[in-house]
Each structure stands twice: as C-alpha cells, then as structure tokens.
Amino acid sequence: MTRFNHAEAINELQELRTTNERCCERVVSLAQRIIDDNYTSTLGDQVWPFYEQAAIAALDTQNFTLANYCIDKLKHRFTEKSLRFRRLLGMRYEAQGLLDEAQEVYDSILKEDETNLLASKRQIALLKARRKDYELMEALTAYLDTYYDDCEAWLELCEAYASKYMYEQAAFCCQEMILLQPSNHIFYLKYAEICYTMNQYEMALKYYCKVLELCTDHVRALYGLHLVSSQKKNANLLLNRF
Length: 242
Hints:
This protein is mainly alpha-helical. It has helices at residues 6-19, 24-36, 47-60, 64-78, 83-95, 99-112, 117-129, 133-146, 151-163, 167-180, 185-197, 201-214, 219-241. α8 (133-146) packs antiparallel against α9 (151-163).
C-alpha cells in the first residue's frame, strides 16, 4: 500500500489554489487526511489559505462537517470583521439553502466595500438563482461600472435584458462585448438575433454575415440569413403592390 505523502498533498493543494481549479472532491480528500493526521501544525501561516480552500471544497460537496471545522478555525483567527471570512459564511448559507441569509451577508460586505469582486460575483449568482431579474440587472450594472472588461458579466446582463424584452439595452450589451472581444463570433450572432427581433433586418444581415466570416459553416447564422432574406423579400412584395 502506497504511503500517503503529506508534503506532496500540500504542494498539490497549493498548485490548485494558484490555478484556481476547484477539483472539490480531490481537495476534500487531501484536506481531510491532512487534518486527521494533524499535519496542519506544520503549515505555519499557510494553514489559513489551506482551511479556506478546504472549506469551499467541502461546501461544494455538501461535507458540512469538514466545512464547519475549517470555518471555525478561520473564525477564531480572523473573526467576522474579515470580509473574506464573511464571504465564506455567505457561501455556507447558500450551501444550506438559506438564500435570504446569504444575500444579507453579501449585501453587508458590499456596503463596506462595493468593489469586493468575490462578494459581487456571489451576489450576482444568487440573484440569478433566485430569478430576481431586475435586482440582477442592477447588480450587474454596478459590477460592470467597476469591472468593465468582464465579457461574461456583459453576456449575463444581455440575457437578463432580453428575458424582459428590453432589446435595445440587450443590443447595447452586445456592442460592448464585440468591442471587448471582436473575434468572438458568438457575440456577433447574439447581436444579429437581437437586431432581427427588433426588425432591424439590414443590421441583422450585416452581423449574420460577420458570423459567417469568422465561422464559415455556422448553421444558426446561415438560418438567420435565410430568415432575413425572407423578411426582406416579403417587404419588397408589399412595396410592389403599391
């Protein structure tokens, strides 16, 4: 039987933190063994990011015993004055299904630090999960005021607007995404479809063609061209009648 190598396990966990990979089950497995063997006493100040990583992974896997153990250790060290620690409390509420309590935690963090990236992202995810669309739009708008170059957030906002038939606002989001990532054909397609929905057929035609320029066999873009051509043909027939 292979002997468990604590040093290698610690290095693996550090590497996962560096690359922002969650690998929750693996983290839980390694962390539990390190804690059970009391190897945490050798980590020095590195024990705190270890506990945070283990707590998040444990919450992701619904291992509340491990999560609570790690959170208690962090609470003893940092107290609830720490915004980073309070974010963990919010995540625990989320994992427990206590969404109102989680929302209160994230709101309190953002009142103290409106630029807190991690709390903003958790708040946005929570509002989306709770289908609070208008509050989600407000949160995303505030987030993008600070983190303008986050294309995923622009896409979230675009879809939120589109779900409420606010197509002009959704189109604006598409324009911002195209400016940020001009080689991403998905954003051109999104814009073309919104233009088509708003009966802006010339604009839709232009951007469907742009999609095909970037991705020559894109089926949805080809179908979009067919729809636009049909609409323009019908419009010409109506004009010819008069």
